[in-house]
Amino acid sequence: GGVLDPHAAFLIQRGLKTYFLRYERQCDNAMRLARFLTGRSEVKSVRYPGLESDPGHALAKKQMRDFGTIVTFDLAGDRETARKFSNALRFFAISASLGSTESLVQPGELMRPRDLTEQELAWAEVNDTTIRLSIGIEDAVDLIEDLTQAFAVSA
Q1: What DSSP line would sit under 91-118, residue for residue?
Q2: What mean pLDDT do residues 130-143 have?
Q3: Rounded to 5 degrees, what angle do the CA atoms 52, 90, 101 make?
Q4: Which strands sit side by side in the sheet containing 70-75, from one edge to the other?
Q5: Contact indicator for 104, 131 with CB cutoff of 8 Å
Q6: What average pLDDT does the chain have?
Q7: In the chain, which residue ranges form alpha helices assigned H by DSSP?
Q8: Using N-to-C axis directions, what is the helix angle for 140-154 and 6-38, rounded to 10°?
């Protein structure tokens, strides 16, 4: 039905009390990781609206106070490089959905729709080396160290 049970309502109410603090931490972490990824030779491109180099930065700056928790990048390499990278991560769990307080990774092969034309795939900017990170509330230094060791494993 349309009515929550009391325990579910309690959990939602409790979670909302700290939502802003969690989101603020996640956005800060996302910006730090996007900047880190921008300087890596293993990365071809980074898409995060908080970066001034992102094509959507000016619009995002007008519309948003924070720039969100999702960082997308393309690895230099091939499908196997992306698979090794994703599997080597320790703090980022491979997931088909995003948006948790834990950091998650979505490799390109999980995101790539099978029914799109080549033109639509190019527009979507999702390929075999695309990696999408949903940044959590963990310590940003730990997340950066995790990415660093995954780059080493996938090289």
Answers
A1: SSEE-SS---SS-EEEEHHHH--TT--H
A2: 96
A3: 60
A4: 43-47, 70-75, 130-134, 104-107, 93-94
A5: no
A6: 92
A7: 6-38, 57-63, 79-88, 108-111, 118-124, 140-154
A8: 60
Q: Which residues pair with 75 in a beta bridge?
A: 43
Q: For residue range 73-93, what is the model confidence (pLDDT) as tens digits?
A: 999 999 999 999 999 999 999
Q: Give the Cβ contact number of residue 53 at 10 Å.
A: 11
In 10 A of CB 139, how many CB atoms?
11
Q: Which amino acid is at 85?
A: F
CB 134 within 8 A of CB 95: yes
The token pair at 8 is 């579910």
Give the residue among 146, 130, 150 at the shortest CA–CA distance from 79: 130
Instruction: Say if residue 88 is exposed, middle or buried (CB neighbours under 10 Å; 0-12, 13-18, 19+).
Output: middle
Angle at the Cα of 101 (from 100 to 107), degrees rounded to 5?
Answer: 50
pLDDT of residue 116: 79
Structure token pair of residue 137: 């509330």
Q: Are 24 and 66 in contact (CB under 8 A)?
A: yes
Decide: residue 71, CB within 10 A, 0-12 exposed, 13-18 middle, 19+ buried.
buried
pLDDT digits (tens, 9 = 90+) for 18-70: 999 999 999 999 999 999 999 899 999 999 999 999 999 999 999 999 999 99
